[in-house]
Write a structure and sequence with these properties.
By secondary structure, the protein is an alpha/beta fold. It binds ligand MGD (2 copies) and molybdenum atom. The site of one ligand MGD has 30 residues, from α16 and β13. Molybdenum atom (MO) binds next to loops.
């Protein structure tokens, strides 16, 4: 493998890719790459390992799984995986078959997009949003808690083309992101205050006669109920809560009401706090209230995972999910400490690096270091999580195994072949889990086991399988119905009555205080600053963190820094009741007062005391979906002497 670049056949990729994945060769062939199975020989975390053969490693792991299951029951085993960058073959597939047949505990996967998915499904069901390509048609683009310059670079040129044709740009973000600096309007809200802002917009749209009554009568229920809840928020009150100028909010309302096509791109920054689910629901309600659907480039876009692919891995897995208990991955520190009957005795980690991506890092590190917890990690490099494992197994990268994956934003599916020889003895997830199924006597006649068979079984289970297979043979497939459907022209909600549920009953019951109820900012005298941990352009998740040389930096506003006598380059301490981080400060007017930033994806080596932003993130969950609340940390900061 010498170079990776963007496919020119894709209308969105258009020949370029992010700087992050361009580093893949360094990752594949670098010194941190795992090349053989390793078994711990010293105390946990000591870094003392002995290299063993795959046969020895598999015998050891299978033996421990069988022993734990025999003594304590299958639920004492917890598979721990996120798989944000994985497709159908490497996330799920044979791993699901293995852990289902073992009767292991289920994992509720809530690091990302859990609140968003709950809200979106509740309001619209499974409905594809506005294709990113269609943003060129928009007259107004609203980026709400999203930073495409770092996390969705292929949208940036589309936005620029729309702007060149006269479109306006609004950004709602506590930080002055690159696009916020170029926007027509930037609402620098306090983290967690999007809900009052969106409700005040809804209330004003109703009060000023901007609500599209004809559209709502035809396509929505819960209109009056939402109107009543939104009416609790005036523009002045919402602006005060969000710490923004009320005139700017007023301007946004008028811009949004007047523009068509208008499209909202909500990101994942706003879901990660106590109000996240209600906030995203209120934002997703805006295009319905204001009648923005029904034209090309009008509406909203989330991940477009809901493109109605009609594909499921269930047939290929060949084993229904057992009714075993469910553990929320975002509360793993507590689960390991407190869950009983049975206690979790084995954590099997793959596609995940929880030591630096899960909340409540200090407590999690303590739990993982326990001698009575058997930890297996399957990964490509020696991650911070692998450091604390009993057994480390070398995994292939996406260039060394096949995967069937869909775009995150784009409505495209690709069957990506292995194009490079696996480094060392690395094995794919299906090779690993297939071997464990065999060793544990859990493989059954008729199981699809090879990647070929798994892909064939997955496509065969789709009513559109033949059509998808034919397209895949030519590079990539579009969802049945095409990649450029217009919401409310070509696609409609698939809720029970086919209408938008503006106050879905199930969500109203699920949210602790009812949907659209604001829970106040948790800042206190002791912890007055909101710490958020967004992505950087150079680093988005924890992947490739081993290649990063630069130390972590806490970004502070000039006002907050001056109040604490802090200058750029100073060593600082950031703390709250959950943990403490020691790193360097950077003073910048790109963050608003009251907010500080420590990027996500840092590894333990990037700070002085070996803890990252995740040490300050509470193990609490958002109002919907069991979502992790990464941006709900409140902290104090001081200069270190
Ligand atoms: N190349 C590449 N692209 C990726 C990924 C990758 O690995 N590689 N990963 C993908 C993944 S998993 C994800 S989740 C996405 C994340 O994509 P984004 O949603 O863009 O990610 P973040 O940087 O977490 O947050 C976006 C913005 O939200 C702001 N924010 C924080 N809190 C709040 C709030 O309360 N309200 C508002 N309005 N804004 C807030 C932050 O300042 C930040 O600028 O990126 C995806 N994109
Ligand atoms: N503080 C803070 N923390 C956050 C967030 C935040 O905003 N703030 N955001 C959260 C978000 S949006 C996300 S998506 C999560 C991501 O959380 P994680 O999923 O834990 O993070 P990744 O860096 O994507 O880790 C994936 C790991 O899987 C490995 N891997 C990749 N492919 C394979 C494979 O095929 N097989 C195996 N066995 N391993 C593989 C990679 O080498 C990497 O170590 O982080 C969350 N953590
Ligand atoms: Mo994510």
């Amino acid at each position: 493998m010498v170079e990776v670049t963007g496919d020119r056949r894709g209308p969105i990729t258009d020949g370029f890719i992010c700087g992050k994945v361009r580093k893949i060769a360094e990752h594949m062939y670098g010194e941190d790459r795992l090349t053989t199975p390793l078994v711990r020989t010293g105390p946990k975390g000591s870094g003392r390992w002995s290299a063993v053969s795959w046969d020895e490693a598999l015998d050891h792991v299978a033996g421990r799984l069988a022993a734990i299951r025999g003594r304590a029951g299958g639920e004492a085993i917890l598979p721990y995986h996120y798989g944000g960058s994985n497709g159908w073959l490497t996330e799920g597939a044979l791993a699901s078959r293995l852990f289902r047949r073992l009767g292991a505990s289920n994992l509720e996967r809530t690091f990302c997009a859990a609140a968003t998915t709950a809200a979106q499904r509740g309001l619209y069901g499974v409905m594809p949003g506005v294709p990113l390509e269609d943003y060129v048609h928009a007259r107004l683009i609203v980026l709400w808690g999203v930073n495409p310059s770092a996390t969705g670079i292929h949208l940036v040129p589309v936005i620029e083309r729309a702007r060149a044709a006269g479109a306006k740009l609004v950004v709602v973000d506590p930080r002055a992101t690159p696009l916020a600096r170029r926007a027509d309007l930037h609402l620098a809200v306090r983290p967690g205050a999007d809900l009052p802002v969106a409700l005040a917009v809804i209330a004003a749209l109703f009060a000023r006669g901007h609500a599209d009554r004809r559209f709502l009568d035809a396509h929505a229920t819960g209109v009056d109920a939402l109107g009543v809840r939104a009416a609790r928020w005036s523009i002045d009150d919402a602006a005060r809560e969000a710490g923004i100028d009320a005139h700017l909010l007023d301007r946004f309302i008028e811009l949004y009401a007047a523009a068509s096509p208008a499209v909202i791109r909500p990101g994942w920054g706003m879901e990660r706090n106590r109000n996240g689910g209600s906030a995203i629901a209120a934002v997703l309600a805006l295009p319905a209230i204001a009648g923005k659907f029904g034209v090309r480039g009008g509406g909203y876009t989330m991940s477009n995972g809901d493109a109605r692919w009609t594909i499921t891995a269930e047939t290929a897995i060949g084993e229904p999910a057992p009714p075993t208990r469910t553990i929320n991955m975002s509360q793993i520190s507590r689960a390991l400490a407190t869950v009983r009957d049975p206690r979790i005795e084995c954590l099997f980690v793959y596609n995940c690096n929880p030591v630096v991506t899960a909340p409540d890092q200090r407590a999690l590190v303590e739990q993982l270091a326990r001698d009575d917890l058997f930890v297996v990690v399957h990964d490509q490099v020696m991650t911070d999580t692998a450091q604390l494992a009993d057994v480390v197994l070398p995994a292939t990268t996406f260039l060394e195994h096949r995967d069937l994956r869909r775009g995150y934003g784009t409505m495209r599916l690709i069957d990506a072949p292995a194009v490079a020889a696996p480094v060392g003895q690395s094995r794919s997830n299906n090779q690993l889990f297939g071997a464990l199924l065999d060793r544990l006597g859990l493989t059954r006649a008729g199981d699809a086991t090879s990647d070929d068979d798994l892909v064939a079984a997955t496509l065969a289970a789709s009513p559109h399988g033949a059509e998808l297979r034919a397209q895949l043979a030519h590079g990539f497939a579009a969802p049945p119905g095409g990649p450029n459907r217009i919401p409310f022209v070509d696609v409609f909600p698939d809720t029970s009555d086919g209408k938008i549920q503006l106050v879905p009953e199930a969500l109203d019951r699920a949210a602790p205080d009812g949907l659209y109820t604001y829970r106040p900012d948790p800042r206190s005298e002791a912890y007055p600053l909101a710490l958020i941990s967004p992505a950087l352009a150079t680093q988005i998740s924890s992947t490739f963190g081993q290649l990063r040389k630069a130390p972590g930096q806490l970004e502070l506003s000039p006002g907050d820094a001056a109040a604490r006598g802090i200058h750029t380059g100073d060593p600082v301490r950031i703390w709250n009741d959950h943990g403490e981080v020691e790193c360097l400060a950077k003073v910048t007017s790109e963050v608003r007062d009251g907010v500080c930033v420590l990027a996500k994806g840092l590894w333990r080596r990037h700070t002085r005391n070996g803890y990252t932003a995740n040490a300050l993130v509470p193990p609490a969950v958002a109002d919907l979906g069991g979502q992790a609340t990464y941006n709900d940390a409140r902290v104090q900061v001081a200069r270190r002497p």
